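#struct-queue
[09:14] JT: dropping the first one here, sequence first, then the structure tokens:
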Amino acid sequence: MLAYVASALFVIAYLLLATGTSTESWYSPTALGFVGLALLAAHLGGASARIGGRRHR
């Protein structure tokens, strides 16, 4: 799940860079890229398995 959110943030950051939209807010392309990288690192670290994963018996 975290990987999907990270990829969505990467797409938004890419679109902001590609269109040349200048944003001076928290959602600048660099900030979105860093948040996406943090979510991807959390996903690869196994955090998404602990958040709402299925319980196996």
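[09:21] JT: and here's the second one, same format:
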Amino acid sequence: MAKMEMLRELWGFLKHRKAYWLAPIIIVLLLLGGLILLSETTAVAPFVYTLF
């Protein structure tokens, strides 16, 4: 629940400051972080290495 609260506050901050251009950067960073976590621990690792 705390993570959803943090995301809600972050979106409220971006909306209030009209910093919508930061949203794609944050999304890409989260996706790359998830990809790194996936490649460390699962059988997906060999397929991730072929992407780079």
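[09:30] RK: nice, looked through the second one.
[09:31] RK: Helices lie at 2-17, 22-41, 45-51.
[09:31] JT: good to know. The mean pLDDT is 82.
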